[in-house]
Amino acid sequence: MRATDQAASLRLIQGTGHAPSPRRERAIAVTGGKGGVGKSTIAVGLASAFAADGSDTLMIDADLGMADLNLLLGVAPPHSLLDALGGAPIDDVLVAAHGMHLLPAANGSFELATLGPLARARACALVDELRVRFDTVVLDIAAGIGHQQSAFTRAARDCVVVVNPEPLSMADSYACLKVLATEHGLDTAYVVPNRVTSRGQADDVVGRLTDLVARFLDLTLVAMPYVPADPAVIEAAHLGVPLVRHRPDAPAARAMRRLARALDAVTPPDQRLDSAQQFWSCQLVPAGETP
Fold it and tell me: How far apart are CA 170 and CA 115, in angstroms?
């Protein structure tokens, strides 16, 4: 097991003055297992921070049948990923919003929610094509640990796991990491404590998850800057405007900009994978006893 010291990594990342570079190629999957932990909010915040820094940014709503990024961005897309899979030109499907682009899914679409293996492969190939066009791609991954969640997470280079202090969030985050590590070869994940009340609580959340992972998985966890509980997050969501734009000085908005800088600080540039290499190895990672 390779585990970072969470307090040390937080100090290292939060102390850096490094700013996101707009021309770097990034593909970031934001996941966490459990619904309601703020994955979509973190995904929008990250994308907004990179876009504000000059990066040509695309958001992909990978919660295919229960999409909500359109609501957080205040748009009503006439088309969705389903139209793109059916042959519609991708530029007719993409939606511009708040200095970014969105590849929307659909809310209440059984067909999208139950894509078969071939359709999932086409969707991931489409993601790979779009990665060539944009500097930054942020995928908002659906709750759960099924085939679709794993496929879209694997289509990114970096995996950000959002976790809350609640015990259920901790358990589901571990379950998500377990599947990604043992079934798909994930070896590093970036942990974002969300809706915490203090640095101490953030350190405790990361520490407990790190201890659990260390017992059972061959996986490195890297602690990211925490995002505090902030009523401005709900306010921005109601308005359909990214918090980083609506209230740039709000505590959560500042935290999301720190998170964007932190991801740049810990991941080297120019690592976009070739199409043939985009997925992690599917070999099982050696692990200890199974909980």
Answer: 28
Please tell me the distance from the alpha carbon of residue 57 to that of residue 131, in angstroms, as a whole number: 10
Whether domain 6-266 has CATH 3.40.50.300: yes
- Sorted by where each begins, the domain ranges of the chain are 6-266
Q: Are 86 and 77 in contact (CB under 8 A)?
A: no
* Phi/psi at 9 (5° precision): -70, -35
Running along the chain, 291 residues long, what does each successive block of 10 average in pLDDT? 43 44 77 90 97 95 90 96 94 97 91 88 90 94 87 90 94 94 92 96 96 94 97 97 96 97 76 38 30 36
4 touches 222 (CB < 8 A)? yes
Q: Would you call 149 helix, strand, or coil by DSSP?
A: helix
Q: Give burial (CB, 10 Å; 0-12/13-18/19+) of 160.
A: buried
CA atoms of 212 and 224, how far apart (whole Å)? 18
CB neighbour class for 18 (10 Å; exposed up to 12, middle 13-18, buried from 19): exposed
In the chain, the amino acid numbered 197 is T
Q: Cα–Cα–Cα angle for 38, 9, 272, nearest 5°?
A: 70
Residue 164 has a pLDDT of 95
